Amino acid sequence: MFGNGKNGSNGGERRDGDGAIIALAGVRKVYDTGAVKVEALRKVDLSIKRNEFVAIVGPSGSGKSTLMNILGCLDTATEGSYRLRGEEVSGMSIDRLADIRNRRIGFVFQNFNLLPQLTAFENVEMPLLFKGAPAKERRERVESLLGQVGLADRMQHRPVELSGGQMQRVAIARALACEPDIILADEPTGNLDSAAGGDIIGKFEELWAKGHTLVLITHDGAIARRTRRVVRVQDGTVVDDAPAA
Amino acid sequence: MRALALIVRLFRGAAKIQRKRMILTVTAIAWGTVAIILLLSFGEGLKRSLQTGSRGLGENIVIIWMGETEKAYAGLPAGRPIRLVPDDVDLVLAGVPEIASAAGEMHNWNVQLVNGRTALNKRVVGVHPAYEELRTSYPRSGGRYIDELDQKLKRRVVFLGDQLAKDLFGAGDPVGKTLLVADTPFTVIGVLQKKKQMGMYGGPDADRATIPLSTFEAMFGRRYLSNLVYQPTRNALAPVAKRHLMEVLGAKYRFDPADTRALQFWDTIEDAKRLDAIMIGLQAFLGVIGALTLIIGGVGVANIMFATVTHRTREIGVQMALGARRVYITGSIVLESLALTFAGGVIGIGVGVTIVQVLAAVQAHVKSEAMEVLGTPTISIPIAVATVTLLGLIGLLAGYFPARRAVTVQPAEALRFE
């Protein structure tokens, strides 16, 4: 149902030795605010394989958001190596990183981050526009994706006309638009009531079952338990990495 | 092309925030545009007025007065007066191929002109027929200028300046009427078309009577010309024409062709060039003042674009997260800035053109010396092009700098922005 079955058929792609999609080695991130330097991440090593369902947990200020930004190429590491599907990302140009985010990574944010002046259809279409997909392909893809998240009848609605759960489903459709290698979700249920939140996690499980790779950032233990692997971050480093209980 | 379409889409999605500030900004640009259009139009009007004024004397002509030799030549001493005679006009025309046309002119400064009970003492000149074209002395309809036959037959015919005709004959048409010139009856054959004349010698053409040169010689017993007017075949050949003329006349009157005092030249071609240069300077000056006013409007646009970019930081962060390259983001911001600038520009051009046309209409009705010199404000193609180019440049710059700032932050930072 999700991803049109294309995922998992990347056999020919270059890959790290252990088949990891994501491989962080010795990643460090220092925020230089002028007066003080804050070390948000120190020596993080992390490897995520295809079709894993990972939760990154930790208290606020632990560095998990920084880690998510680096995984999503939204920010660059101060030092260390980040290989995304075998390709070294650190040192890439700004536009190259934009292309990487466009094609390889799908984002789901806590506050949805839909563009308020665009309809649901246009929001999902946006990454396809950036990719340069022709109009016909875009329309088919967007219609199919919105259908899959159960919003076929809400395509021309603007975000303000949608409920929180519906907005997050639009965001999931958008994250899937360019068939990314990995979906990064930052507290995706943080702004939703428990019913809508449960529904969204259900969607993620469905995606995982379809062969997608998912990384969830959360501080909610209940949600972390529904994943298959929990990476605990504290004081800027990985303190525990174990299968979900 | 695809990138452009995408930029337009992003722009369409974003451009509807901060309405009040936008109106102010558009007004500022419109104001600047009006200023630049008015200033340049007045400059253009003044330029055209001065050009017509100088055409009133004659186009691309040179006038020669008689002088005195300064250098001893061929055994003759310095200080000899050089006096030209009417035949020298033919000599010059035959001997200098670079001269297209020439006419002699004699002046009598104080001749009594009588029509019935009206008597005036005015200047009377005798000229060759070629003078009409050379000195732009065209007749009003219903009349004619002095022609070859008049000259050949020494006819007693007179061509009147328009002011003089009015003073002598009132509002009626004097053509065909008889006028006493120094007690001799002359037939009025034409009246000068009203013209704007800025350069002059001895007074305006409007206030004198003109008769054939042959008649003048016979009546007043003159031998020598007061001056000679000629026109080179091309402006570029004017210096050659002058040198050859000096050689031809120098050979006849035995003076050194390099003697600058033997004959005195008034080269209106040179004057026109100088006037053009001055006008270019004046227009540049007016343009700069206008441009500065417009640039203030541009600062307003830049300001609002900075505000918009800040306001939209998060949206820009989302677009970057979804994979927008820098050019898509900067492009849509620059496009918005251009749209604001051109909205102001269109209003400004509309208002400016209206004001110019109203002023032109008012000026056509109000008779005033100062207004006449100032000329009618005129919008020309170069003014329009300059204004639009400047608007485009301002819009581009006012959008570019905020846009550049927008894409220098990391997407993570933009997404955190509240």
Describe the protein in words.
Chain A has helices spanning 64-71, 94-104, 120-131, 135-148, 164-176, 194-209, 221-225; strands at 20-32, 37-49, 53-57, 79-84, 87-88, 105-108, 182-186, 213-218, 229-234, 237-243. Chain A has 245 residues and is an alpha/beta fold. In chain A, the strands form 2 sheets. A 6-stranded mixed beta sheet of chain A has the order 6-7-8-3-9-10, with helices on both faces. Chain A has a 4-stranded antiparallel beta sheet with strand order 2-1-4-5, with helices on one face. In chain A, helix 3 (120-131) packs parallel to helix 5 and helix 5 (164-176) runs parallel beside helix 6 (194-209). The longest helix of chain A has 16 residues, at 194-209. The model of chain A is unreliable at 1-17 (pLDDT under 50). Chain B is built from 14 helices and 9 strands. In chain B, strands 2-3-7-4-6-5 form a 6-stranded mixed barrel. The A-B interface holds A 69, 72, 74-76, 94-95, 98-103, 107, 109, 113-115, 117-118, 122, 126-127, 129-132, 174, 178 and B 2, 6, 9, 13-14, 16, 314-315, 317-326, 328, 407, 410-413, 415.
Shape verdict of chain A: globular
* Assembly state of the chains shown: heterodimer
Strand tally of chain A: 10
What value does the average pLDDT of chain A take? 88
Distance between the termini of chain B: 34 Å
* Main sheet: strands, sense, barrel of chain B: 6 strands, mixed, barrel
- Helical amount among residues of chain B, as a percent range? 55-70%
What percent of residues of chain A adopt helix (DSSP H or I)?
25-40%
Any chance you could write out the topology, listing elements then pairs?
The complex is a heterodimer of chains A (245) and B (418).
Chain A: E1 20-32, E2 37-49, E3 53-57, H1 64-71, E4 79-84, E5 87-88, H2 94-104, E6 105-108, H3 120-131, H4 135-148, H5 164-176, E7 182-186, H6 194-209, E8 213-218, H7 221-225, E9 229-234, E10 237-243
Helix pairs in contact in A: 3-4, 3-5, 4-5, 5-6
Chain B: H1 2-14, H2 19-55, E1 62-66, H3 87-95, E2 99-115, E3 118-127, H4 131-134, H5 148-153, E4 157-160, H6 162-169, E5 178-181, E6 184-191, E7 208-212, H7 213-220, E8 227-232, H8 238-253, E9 263-267, H9 268-311, H10 313-321, H11 326-365, H12 369-374, H13 381-406, H14 411-416
Parallel strand pairs in B: 3-7, 4-6
Antiparallel strand pairs in B: 1-8, 1-9, 2-3, 2-5, 2-8, 4-7, 5-6
